[in-house]
């Protein structure tokens, strides 16, 4: 088996690529995820589904050929993963952030990300305290079936052991079927509420409905709100005002980013580990305030290059926001439109929302053992059953919470 382990600092480069791509994607702006929670803009779903459809067969195809990856599907403990996903989804809908996008938003110069960061650190501390209690142990041990993937089980760093009667080639075949299902979601799910086409169909058919054109323009307005100026001939204009009928270099922009992110995670898994970002919060809390707690000791022992990749994520988002998209807001008080429409523009109210959402989101992530990066992106790429459960719980809670919060 061909294996390799890169030094820790390489995580900065991996984080930089993903941070820059995701900032251009719009993930650093909390309005993007709030609109996802309101089921008004499904770009995140489409791009994640397409990225997984591209990368999962690559991952398992190379594995069948004898390439070793640092697999790390999260354990499937049904109660803790499910409840953690519910809390994560609720927090995401309120704050508009997940663990990685907080670092991206800081790179984009968003003030409310500071409040979300503080809430997330408190959420990590709360789980660290709860973990060593009987309640915490019950959550992670009840109905714990280990690290299962579709068709097999993770038994060591480089080995996914197929179930009896199956081979790594069979896992590759399963990944192809899995990828087809995800591609159909990416192809047929309309990006916008009231629209008819996904990003892929817009690019292929080169036409939009009036609703879709207006939605694209509205998206450009909120993405650039408070950002740096740019000229009419700049790359920033093409990126920010992208839509499929525009014949320019950005026509396949969103689709390309999905592939870049997915394949970068495959590369990361070959070099060192899966892509995950919520562990850093527990590591920070443990180092600064709770070094003797049992959960902190587990984090210290198992931490990889997450702090490095999070630094890279912030740097990549900053680079993109200043030099590509021009969305850097210089930490001015920019309130997400959906939040302002429901609660007004008072900064203190937004502080409470960002803080509370960040707290619930990170508390849920650590309870479940992963987040949007470790469970949804990296976990679903490995066809991990825990990732699929977490994803379902997040989306259900996110949509229900958005209906209640934003009416």
UniProtKB/TrEMBL annotation:
What stretches pass through the bilayer? 6-22, 43-65, 77-106, 113-131, 171-189, 252-275, 311-328, 348-368, 388-406
Which InterPro entries does this one have? Answer: Sulf_transp_TsuA/YedE (IPR007272)
Q: Which domain of life is it from?
A: Archaea
Assigned GO CC terms: plasma membrane
Q: Which UniProt keywords apply?
A: Cell inner membrane, Cell membrane, Membrane, Transmembrane, Transmembrane helix, Transport
How is it placed in the membrane, per its record? Multi-pass membrane protein
Q: Where in the cell is it found?
A: Cell inner membrane
> Which Pfam family, any one, appears in the UniProt record?
Sulf_transp
- Tell me what this protein is called: Uncharacterized protein
């Amino acid at each position: 088996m061909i294996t390799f382990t890169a030094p820790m600092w390489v995580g900065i480069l991996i984080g930089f690529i993903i941070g820059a791509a995701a900032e251009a994607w719009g993930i650093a702006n909390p309005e993007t995820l709030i609109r996802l929670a309101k089921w008004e803009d499904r770009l995140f779903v489409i791009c994640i589904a397409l990225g997984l459809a591209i990368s999962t067969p690559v991952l398992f195809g190379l594995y069948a050929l004898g390439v070793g990856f640092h697999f790390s599907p999260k354990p499937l403990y049904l109660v803790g993963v499910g409840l953690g996903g519910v809390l994560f989804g609720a927090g995401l809908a309120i704050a508009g952030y997940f663990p990685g996008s907080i670092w991206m938003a800081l790179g984009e110069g968003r003030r409310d990300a500071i409040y979300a960061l503080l809430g997330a650190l408190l959420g990590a501390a709360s789980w660290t305290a709860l973990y060593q209690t009987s309640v915490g142990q019950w959550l992670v041990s009840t109905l714990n079936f280990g690290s299962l993937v579709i068709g097999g089980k993770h038994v060591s760093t480089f080995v996914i052991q197929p179930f009896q009667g199956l081979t790594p080639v069979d896992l590759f075949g399963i990944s192809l079927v899995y990828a087809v299902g995800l591609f159909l979601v990416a192809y047929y799910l309309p990006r916008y509420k009231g629209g008819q086409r996904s990003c892929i169909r817009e690019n292929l058919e080169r036409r939009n409905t009036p609703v879709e054109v207006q939605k694209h323009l509205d998206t450009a307005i909120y993405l650039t709100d408070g950002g740096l100026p740019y000229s009419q001939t700049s790359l920033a204009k093409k990126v920010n005002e992208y839509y499929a009928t525009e014949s320019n270099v950005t026509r396949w922009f969103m689709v390309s980013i999905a592939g870049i992110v997915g394949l970068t995670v495959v590369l990361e898994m070959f070099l060192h580990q899966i892509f995950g970002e919520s562990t850093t919060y527990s590591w920070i809390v443990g180092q600064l305030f709770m070094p003797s707690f049992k959960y902190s000791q587990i984090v210290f022992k198992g931490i990889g290059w997450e702090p490095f990749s999070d630094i890279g994520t912030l740097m990549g988002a900053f680079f993109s926001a200043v030099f590509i998209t021009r969305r850097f807001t210089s930490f001015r008080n920019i309130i997400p439109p959906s939040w302002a429409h429901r609660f007004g523009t008072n900064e203190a109210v937004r502080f409470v929302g960002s803080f509370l959402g960040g707290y619930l989101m990170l508390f849920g992530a650590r309870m479940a053992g992963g987040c949007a990066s470790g469970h949804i992106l990296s976990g679903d790429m490995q066809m991990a059953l825990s990732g699929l459960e977490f994803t379902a719980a997040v989306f259900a809670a996110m949509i229900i919470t958005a209906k209640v919060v934003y009416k």
